[in-house]
Design goal:
Layout: H1 2-15, E1 23-28, H2 31-36, H3 47-66, E2 75-79, E3 82-84, E4 92-94, E5 104-106, E6 123-125, H4 127-141, E7 146-150, E8 156-157, H5 159-167, H6 169-178, H7 180-204, E9 243-246, H8 256-271, E10 276-279, H9 289-295, E11 299-304, H10 310-317, E12 322-325, H11 330-333, H12 339-352, E13 357-365, H13 373-389
Parallel strand pairs: 1-13, 2-7, 8-9, 9-10, 10-11, 11-12, 12-13
Antiparallel strand pairs: 3-6, 4-5
Length: about 400
């Protein structure tokens, strides 16, 4: 449709830090998608086919219901089937009986001696299975969708998240004081392990550009850009041709100095290998943006979560990268919606960040209480205010 082409052009300019206006996205997740696209309505039983059906049905819901700046294309991506060898320490997840309930886990990294059991991981590419999935998709969608084999869409430094699962979140935080050597050794291992994995990805030639119109960040936003791939690209994808991702949600309560010492100094050498970087998720980074900008010269998108000081973020980021603001999802997830408060939050942010390249992402929407029209109304409100802001 013509308006999809207009969205693509708008995102091209926006991600080059030349916005026509603030961009608007809505990101239903978890139970919210079940309300919008009921699992009982699915026809396919085979896990792979059901995954494709869910993807396509959700695209239809986006087109018919939401009406934001999300780009929809006629493509179906078949991920390369990759296998990763064991870390040497297993993570035992204990899940509840109810679907979507809170889970816990049993840490396996209890003492510094356990670090010696960690093993660098080896990547193997299951070419045959990948090809079988691709051929099946081609048979099903011939003449309807452009089917492509792709890989490497979301590669990131999820270091604190993995270490929380290995060591436990509370032990991780207390060991910043009680046993900093353990944390430093564990983070250094993850840095070196991920660098080895990335080297294997390049050697196996299993990466694909993650810069196309249908590519989106896990933290929200379109990844489409014409500033990648990098110079010298000849068809074989390198890390410098891609977006990389970083986040440190488990260190939300950790100060800027410890964030730099225990996380960013280990993330930065990995993230600098990428062409462009998006950083942050739900954690407040307003007092950490200075360090992030200093250590990641390729930073292009910074997450401004609901717990950020929006003014500090705007002053620090300016036009140096995208100001990806996430309103508090409770505004539309509660039993009732205060639409006046929704509009006020958007107006305040657009005023505070008037000199920034602003993206508004209503993310982490876990429920709309069965009222799908909430997403339509919020998107219309945000789009109207974004267009007024110009």
């Amino acid at each position: 449709m013509p308006h999809q082409s207009r969205k693509i052009e708008r995102w091209r300019r926006f991600n080059a830090l030349r916005p026509e206006r603030p961009m608007v996205l809505v990101s239903p997740e978890g139970s919210a998608w079940d309300e919008l696209c009921a699992p009982a309505s699915m026809v396919c039983q085979d896990p792979l086919l059901r995954q494709w059906e869910i993807d396509l049905r959700r695209r239809i819901v986006r087109h018919e219901l939401i009406g934001d700046d999300w780009i929809l294309t006629n493509t179906l991506d078949i991920p390369r089937v990759l296998h990763m060898s064991s870390l040497g320490l297993e993570i035992e997840i204990v899940r509840p009986s109810e679907q979507g309930g809170a889970y816990t886990w049993t840490p396996s990294l209890r003492t510094e001696a356990d670090l010696d059991r960690l093993q660098f991981q080896t990547v193997t590419f299951d070419r045959d299975r990948t090809q079988r999935n691709y051929q099946l998709a081609c048979e099903l969608f011939s003449g309807i969708l452009d089917v492509r084999i792709r890989g490497g869409a979301n590669i990131g430094t999820w270091f604190t998240g993995r270490l929380s699962l290995l060591h436990g979140l509370e032990p991780l935080l207390t060991d910043l004081y009680d046993n900093p050597r353990l944390v430093h050794r564990a983070m250094a291992f993850q840095r070196d392990n991920l660098n080895r994995i990335l080297d294997q990805y390049e050697a196996l030639d299993v990466l694909s550009l993650n810069t196309l119109p249908e590519d989106h960040f896990l933290m929200g936003g379109s990844a489409y850009t014409d500033q990648l791939p990098a110079c010298g690209f000849a068809g074989r994808v390198r890390l410098g041709d891609l977006w990389g991702y970083g986040e440190c949600q488990e260190f939300a309560c950790v100060g800027p100095e410890q964030f730099l010492e225990f996380s960013l100094q280990y993330e930065a050498p990995v993230l600098r290998r990428f062409g462009l970087v998006a950083y942050g998720c739900c954690e407040p980074l307003d007092r950490k943006f200075d360090s992030i900008l200093a250590h990641l010269p390729n930073l292009r998108l910074a997450s401004v979560s609901p717990w950020c000081d929006r003014a500090i973020a705007a002053q620090t980021l300016g036009r140096r990268c995208i100001y990806a603001w996430k309103p508090n999802p409770s505004l539309i997830c509660g039993p009732r919606v205060d639409w006046t408060a929704c509009g006020q939050a958007i107006r305040e942010t657009l005023k505070i960040a008037r000199d920034c390249c602003v993206e508004i992402v209503m993310k982490d929407v876990q429920t709309v209480h069965g009222e799908a029209a909430r997403l339509t109304r919020w998107a219309e409100l945000a789009m109207k205010l974004a267009q007024e802001a110009g």
